[in-house]
Amino acid sequence: MAAPAADVAPGGRRQPGPPPVAVRPRRVRSVDAAVAAGYLGLAVLLTSRQWGRPDRLFHQDNDQMLFEWMLARAARAVTAGENPLHSAALNAPDGVNLMANTSVLGLGVPLAPVTLLFGTQAAFLVAVVVSLAGTATAWYVLLARRLVGSRVAAAVGGLVCGFAPGMVAQAGAHLHMAAQFLVPPILALVFRPGTDRVRRHGVALGLLVAYQVFVGEELLVFLALAAGVFAVAYALADRAAARRLAPALLGRLGVGALVAGALLAYPLWFQFLGPQHYRGMPFHARGFQLDAASFTASARQTVLGDGYVPGLLSPNPTEENSFFGPGLLVLAVVVVVWLWRRPLVRALAAVGLLAALFSLGDTVRVDGASTGLPGPYRLLAGVPLLDLVVPARFALICVPVLGVLVALSLDRALALAPVGGGTESAGASVRLLWGGAVAAALLPLAPTPIRTVPTWPVPAFVADGGWRAYVPAGRTLVPVPPVTGAGVSPATFWSARTGLAFTAPGGYFIGPGAADDPTAHWGAPDRPTAALLRRAAETGEVPVVTDADRRQAVADLRHWRAAVLVQGGLHRGEAVRRTVDALVGPGREVDGAWVWDVRPLVG
């Protein structure tokens, strides 16, 4: 978080800070470039297990498939001038409300050239690199310009903010949560220490908020909550500064709200009331909570991590949002005590503590066992928007809080001057001691390359366009099985890797449960034939197929406007293949896929 004003103690006493350092502008620019290049190199290293490997995906493979599809869809919207808020390429014939899903247009549109030239996998990896390195760099810039005098302190703080375990865990699957590079500039505008140019900065704030909506709305909800808590806590710690700065701050917020509201009026209407909108979530969000012990444990994607303990303390590998280790938490407590007189530190402590408590969910768990103690998250049960977010993700708010605290402490230590009759060696000893403590706390959190898993390639029949001879305009290609739930979806993956070349039913997205039921549902409502094929896939057994099943299959194929059914991965799914044979007649192998031409059945 950024300080709303010059950091002073209650009563108006200015806190001692580092002496001004005269640095040549050219030297500063070279240091800044070196820091940003270091962040970029680290982000590339973390994605190294997938570069040039089309047969690999990050461990949460269904989420990567979704975001690759979203990037492909954004590129299509740019090149073909299609509606960026809705797509008919999946979930035929109804389509998908992209504003109601994580469409990441704010990433997909700028990356359209990468997507078109190098494909969706390369675009996704570039997006991950930009999200991690961009977030770290944005925090570095804010720290260096607003909060600390030492570039070293700012660089370490940015490193924590961009590459903490929770950031790396989210980056492998959830671009909308890892892309936090707009958070620092938004905070810098909200908590600008000056009181001039209110309208200009309000307009800039509104533009950034609007853009953030197209990167990730959930992150904006967390940002608003954290900024609100920070503002209240800082005002309580420094009432004089709050009274002086409140009019300008409220003015910027008002102008920003008008600008953002005007830009977002139609997109938000489309999200909540447009075609294929839904209400609620298709899963029990409150069940995704963190175990209190996770805050001192090691995450999987760190040098000391393993794959067992994190699985007990977090909902899944993507939500390892805490896992700071004991060293960093002890360090944070020491920093808060050491710098307690600074209102900024008090406000940061309040934000971090509240976010950590919210992440524990409805009932606090420790080492996998329920304590029976109610969690503060219960207070949000009836708050619109907040009651839909995943509790475990509140811990992501703690990441920049810890990063800023580390930077502030390093800056103070590096600025220490000889005390009383002491010598410079005494100050050097303190600097060395604190630098060692920070290194000892952060080294165990050093991230490792994001884990990958194998994926079945897109069959040549689909990838090379053999399907075109079977699918006339207005008809669809139906991947088998036509998975429509939260599982791995061949429709989504094949569509992404081919640049949305064909239209398909189903897919991995969130939509309404039915035409007359807006309750949130994973994918399209299950047609009887899709459910039958899913059971065959899950059980490995061929069900008894009746004439009624065959008639229903024809009805479902007509609903999907199907022209051809395609099953990839011929080395598996024998039960599914035999079930489709029983439903529509025998298929045949074509270019690495099993193909059923159903045009004679559908008409």
Structure description:
- This protein is of the alpha+beta class.
- Helix content is 51%, strand content 8%.
- The protein is built from 23 helices and twelve strands.
- The protein has helices at residues 25-46, 61-80, 105-108, 112-118, 120-147, 151-163, 165-171, 175-178, 183-190, 198-213, 217-237, 239-273, 309-313, 325-338, 343-358, 398-414, 424-442, 460-463, 490-497, 528-539, 547-560, 574-584, 599-602, and strands at residues 56-58, 86-87, 96-97, 363-366, 369-374, 452-454, 476-479, 510-514, 517-522, 562-567, 588-590, 593-597.
- A four-stranded mixed beta sheet has the order 7-10-12-11. Strands 1-6 form a two-stranded antiparallel ribbon.
- Strand 11 and strand 12 (593-597) form a beta hairpin.
- Helix 2 (61-80) crosses helix 5 (120-147).
- The longest helix has 35 residues, at 239-273.
- The N and C termini lie far apart (62 Å).
Percentage beta strand: 5-15%
Number of helices: 23
Major β-sheet, in short? 4 strands, mixed
Distance between the termini: 62 Å
Largest sheet, spatial ordering of strands:
7-10-12-11
Arithmetic mean pLDDT: 91
Instruction: State the secondary-structure class.
Output: alpha+beta
Q: Which parts are unreliable, with pLDDT below 50 for 5 consecutive residues or more?
A: 8-26
Brief summary:
With 603 residues, the protein is of the alpha+beta class. It has helices at 25-46, 61-80, 105-108, 112-118, 120-147, 151-163, 165-171, 175-178, 183-190, 198-213, 217-237, 239-273, 309-313, 325-338, 343-358, 398-414, 424-442, 460-463, 490-497, 528-539, 547-560, 574-584, 599-602, and strands at 56-58, 86-87, 96-97, 363-366, 369-374, 452-454, 476-479, 510-514, 517-522, 562-567, 588-590, 593-597.
